[in-house]
Amino acid sequence: MCGIVGAVAQHDVVTVLTEGLRRLEYRGYDSCGVAVLQHGAPRRVRTVERVESLAAQVEAARLCGTIGVAHTRWATHGAPVTDNAHPIFSCDEIALVHNGIIENHEALRDELKALGYTFESDTDTEVIAHLIHHTREQDASRDLLAAVQGSLQRLRGAYAIAVFAKSEPDRVIGARAGSPLVIGIGEHGNYLASDAMALSGTAKNFIYLDEGDLAVLSRDDVHIVDRDGATAQREIQTEGASHHAVTLGPYRHYMQKEIFQQPDVLADATERVRTISPEHFGKDAKRVFGEIDSLLLLACGTSYYSAMTAKYWFESIAGVPAQVEVASEYRYRESVVNPHAMVVVVSQSGETADTLAALKHAQQLGHQHSLAICNVPHSSMMRQAGLQYLTCAGPEIGVASTKAFTTQLVALFLLALTLGKQRGRVSAQEETLALRQLHHLPAALNGVLALEPQIVAWAEVLARREHALFLGRGVHYPIALEGALKLKEISYVHAEAYPAGELKHGPLAIVTTEMPVVIIAPNDALLHKLKSNMQEVRARGGQLFVLADTDAQITSGEGIRVIHMPEHYGPLSPILHVVALQLLAYHTACVRGTDVDKPRNLAKSVTVE
Predict the structure, then answer these.
(1) Residue 17, SS3 per DSSP
(2) How far apart are alpha carbons 443 and 267 in whole angstroms?
(3) Is residue 604 among the annotated active site residues?
(4) Of 202, 313, 346, 366, whose CB neighbour count within 10 A is largest?
(5) Catalytic site residue from 421, 488, 598, 604
(6) Alpha helices, H only, 6-155
(7) Burial class of residue 39 in the structure, from the number of CB atoms within 10 Å of its CB (0-12 exposed, 13-18 middle, 19+ buried)
(8) pTM (2 decimals)?
(9) What is the DSSP string of 238-249?
(10) Radius of gyration (C-alpha) of the chain in whole angstroms
(11) Which one of the listed residues 2, 32, 374, 590 is annotated catalytic?
(12) What's the CA gap between 227 and 208, in Å, rounded?
């Protein structure tokens, strides 16, 4: 959600800070800022405009320094105005940036006001800055590290922070609890960020801080202590991704680029799958898969819809009962724990706060087996789960997920096949057929992308509407949900999705001649039922937009527009249909002129509740 960059080096770090923020723009933000120690005092520039504008203002202000912090903020406490933008100062001594939410900020604010502190913002972050300053003032022998340690003990909630002090001009301190923070080790300085991508090209070696860690960065050294204050050794990892991987290239938007990357991404994801084996999910997977009798899938947003889709696969292919829950709801209810169920968490970033908290909650309840399906190898979720599967979608910059979703579906389909094979439900012949279908996916997706001109024509119609209805049946119902989500996320057209069989139980009341109804119509066992649902819509004057398989025998006519998919793809059909819906949402947003990659009020990595 929010983005942090910090630096202490032998050279001016302003460019590192602003360039780091540019690479974190995908996370979503509504204000940004930079602070450095310049001529012995903290100076800052903040704005509610984009990072490009911030960089221009920083240059105009001639900001420079060898130590600094920077931030992109997504408003939680306090409106998105300049006074609430980070970095936050305290008494012209402390400069601090913060991701997360401090739950006890009100009580601390009252306490600090009584001590004479004046608050210039409405943020919970300012409480941390003043608390650190006050803690140092109480004991002159305390250095910045000791003040930060003492202050953090009083905070309740989630945070990642980066802070420097005027009186200690040679170091930056970072700390994390519930929000990610990574250290970048450079040749002429050391850096920190909420995402290693921010430091690509600046640092090649990285240290991912554990929960509760604090890090002291100087120009020549990095010192880490754990939550108990003991010196800690953390593994140094080499980051392989280049910043060139996140350049826009010839595309109009990152979302467009990521839609069209899907054939190549899925080719990479399926090429490594030559046999159906538990080893794809970790060295202990075979044992774990033999001990479980069901699955509990936890996810949010688009990842939740991938889990909903996979439920059909788990039960039909593997014969394994699967329960799918919205992660943000799961831990706030009384649940009956099945110790033989494996918890499967699905997340693009691996830092989704609700899903990560749900995983920890499940483990505390007694769930012994867990699997994370994720796109970021060193994320908190991948480290928290017992088993891991890396989707390898590559950097996804557009807020509306595309290639991350389809690679999640491939991973979940592979998991269903693996469980089915281990249980004797998938024969050698069925395995060969499934692998052939997986390896043919890239070619099939290219066929879907070739439909773009027809989809653009649909988008021009939908762009003139304020509402849309999406319908699907069976395994394609979650795909209808995902299509509706994409449309509302980036075009701001209000869209809902229902199982088509539920039309007569309420949604039919909103169908009029002004209501576009998008139908997913694969040639499967439910096609005849779906055709009856389509007639219900047509009888009320609804305008049908049907994605139909070639052999579904549905043709265009009055009140019905049909795009024929290149081929029917059996159980993997949802992957083909969702790509068409991604294109539909994308082009509808383009016609409406919205900010496709950075939709209002949304963030890529949702690291707060």
Answers:
(1) helix
(2) 9
(3) yes
(4) 346
(5) 604
(6) 14-23, 51-60, 105-114, 125-138, 144-152
(7) exposed
(8) 0.81
(9) E----GGGG--T
(10) 25
(11) 2
(12) 15
